[in-house]
Design brief:
The protein is mainly alpha-helical. The protein has one domain. It has 17 helices and 2 strands. A two-stranded antiparallel sheet has the order 1-2.
Amino acid sequence: MTATQLRPPIAPTLSPGTKRRHALVTFAPPFVALLAGWCLIASRAPQGWTSMFNPATFNRWDAGQYLRIAKHGYRASTHCNIGPAVHLCGNVTWFPGYPALIRLLAATHIGYLAAALVVAWSCWYLTLLMVWVLSRDQDRRGGTARGVACLALAAVFPGQVYFAALFPISLVTFAVLLCIWFATRTSFATRATAVRSGVAGVVAGLAYPLALAAAPALLVSALVARGRQRRRVMVAGAAAIVGGFGLVLAYAQLSVGKWNAYFISEREEYGVRTHNPLYFLTARYHDLLHPSSSTIRTITQQGALATLLVVVAIVVTVPALVRARRAADLTDVALLCTACIAWLIPYVGAGALSIYRSEACLIVLVPLLRRLPVWAIGALACAGAVIAYDMAPLFFSGALI
């Protein structure tokens, strides 16, 4: 291959007016979707719309742990109130990536609560932006109409309230989507591309455990990729995500003297260990058919919708990948594998995990649904809106943790 062939193609020069129109088409629809999702949540706020601008409205349960880490770092103790046995506990089970960004932004003197809200809402918008970009690419059999429908679904996706709350869900979904985008969709694989993918991967690995689902997904994409450089970029992205998780363990070692503090706390305090996922799936869908309360009914309805979305994504994506064979869309391979693994992990780990919160991470599958008819995507969005409407007050009341 000659030196000329190694250079990336030169993009055509666009007029200022064309650039503005392109920017408007790219950045405006996700903002409209953000407003729509925000309005749905605001309509259910117990203290009215104005309370939506108060960060304390979204400071529920685990959000306090992230704020404490942002202020004081990791703390651990063996004086626990859960269970009869003496074991390690504290805030070491929450990842430090989101708190680190809160602390960084709080240095501008806007306060920790406000900083946490700014990070969460900014990443919520950026997640919707990535879904929009990945869904409307006409070269990938999407198109604008289906892209709009996918964006509408993303705005009311299961677990939607956690994108607005003081949690790292929006941060990890944005970082994972960005990592996959850089690793699989950039038109010319270079060292700079690998660096960008790696940075996004490290952020994802530092933010939330389910980010690890993207690492094997990128390795699977690398197996079917053409070109050594392309495979290297994907492997680099996968390694960066694992490396981000490794930094979490390193931080625990420096802070509390135990690199495995996360695993100990998850196992002893929350009962997280390997389980048969079929047992918990059966139990959960028994609750769907025979709910003991309206809260359980809403939670299991969201779980059923999340599972349906995973199944639909598999049904519409796998045949297309099989037909394409070596020309398969690598982004679709990575997104599908990430979604399937992220859906399965909470059922395998089980324990006291809040599965309904983790289901928000499945938003990475939305671009795969662009192959559906617009009306089908719209029907899924309507179902998502109904469930999101019922889930929001459960979050504000403290019924969801």
